[in-house]
Specification:
The chain has one domain: Lrp/AsnC effector binding domain/regulation of amino acid metabolism (RAM) domain (Alpha-Beta Plaits), CATH 3.30.70. The protein has three helices and four strands, in the order E-H-E-E-H-E-H. It has a four-stranded antiparallel β-sheet with strand order 2-3-1-4. The radius of gyration is 15 Å and the shape is globular. The termini are far apart.
Length: 92
C-alpha cells in the first residue's frame, strides 16, 4: 500500500464543501481541516504509484474550489504504539 499526504489550499468560502468532495473520492481515506498555511490534508492510500496520479492529478486537483496542492509520498510508516512512545514525556 502506498500512502500519499496531500496538502490542499482551497477557496476559503468553500473549504467544507471541498473537504467533503475530496473525502468522497476513491482512494482518499481521510481528509483533515487544519490550521496554518494550508487548509486541508488528504490521505491517499493506493496500491500503485500510477494510482496516485489518477487520484491526485485526475480527480482531486479538479474538485471545484481546490486552488493548489502539494503531494508527499510516505516511505515509512510507524505504528500507533511507536508514535506514542516517541512522543511520551514520561507522565505514566
Amino acid at each position: 500500500m502506498i500512502t500519499a499526504i496531500v496538502f490542499v489550499n482551497a477557496e476559503t468560502a468553500r473549504i467544507p464543501e471541498v473537504a467533503e468532495a475530496i473525502a468522497a473520492l476513491e482512494g482518499v481515506s481521510e481528509v483533515y481541516s487544519v490550521t496554518g498555511q494550508i487548509d486541508l490534508i488528504a490521505l491517499v492510500r493506493v496500491r500503485r504509484h500510477e494510482d496516485i496520479a489518477s487520484v491526485v492529478s485526475d480527480q482531486l486537483n479538479k474538485v471545484p474550489g481546490v486552488v493548489d496542492t502539494e503531494t508527499h509520498i510516505a516511505y515509512r510508516a510507524y505504528s500507533r504504539h511507536d508514535l506514542e512512545s516517541a512522543f511520551s514525556i514520561g507522565l505514566d
